[in-house]
Design goal:
mainly beta, 5-stranded antiparallel sheet, 1 helix, binds thymidine-5'-diphosphate, about 5% helix
Length: about 140
């Protein structure tokens, strides 16, 4: 899938002096059914996460606290997204190489995913990813 399919999706925001509220529903605000939620936290400054692609997995990434960057690479183009609010997130489609960096202190990255954890869905080798993108593997 091309990089243009990955995009920032703004979430509903119910502004309230008592504290704001946002929500995410399967198949409504995001274009897939949610099967799994995981989150990265206590990330030491300067560390990178990710550096892999998924064959079939769809994901939606939200900065629940603090900020970080997500770099997406479809094999021909790269794009860096800065996430720093909990009322929007980044939709990441399958076959997209990604890494996360530039975590602020206290940064919490929540990921909604379209399937349970499956190591067989990962491509962890960039050369293999490029071969698959080019149809050679
Ligand atoms: P990984 O996806 O490689 O982390 P990241 O992309 O954030 O750098 O996962 C790190 C480890 O955690 C790996 O051993 C697999 C395990 N893991 C699970 O058991 N379940 C999960 O849902 C996820 C995302 C990872």
């Amino acid at each position: 899938m091309p990089l243009e399919d990955c995009r920032i999706i703004e979430l509903p925001k119910i502004s309230d002096p008592r504290g704001n509220l946002s929500f995410i529903e399967s198949g409504r605000q995001i274009p897939f059914d949610i099967q799994r939620v995981y989150y990265l936290y206590d990330v030491p400054g300067g560390s990178d996460r990710g550096s892999h692609a998924h064959k079939k997995l769809h994901q939606f990434i939200v900065a629940m606290s603090g900020s970080f960057d997500v770099v997406l690479d479809d094999g021909s183009e790269k794009k860096r997204f800065h996430l720093n609010r909990s009322y929007y997130g980044l939709y990441v489609c399958p076959m997209m190489w990604r890494y996360l960096d530039n975590f602020s202190s206290g940064g919490v990255c929540m990921v909604l995913a379209s399937a349970h954890y499956d190591e067989a869905d990962y491509i962890r080798d960039y050369d293999l990813f490029m071969k698959k993108v080019l149809g050679d593997a």
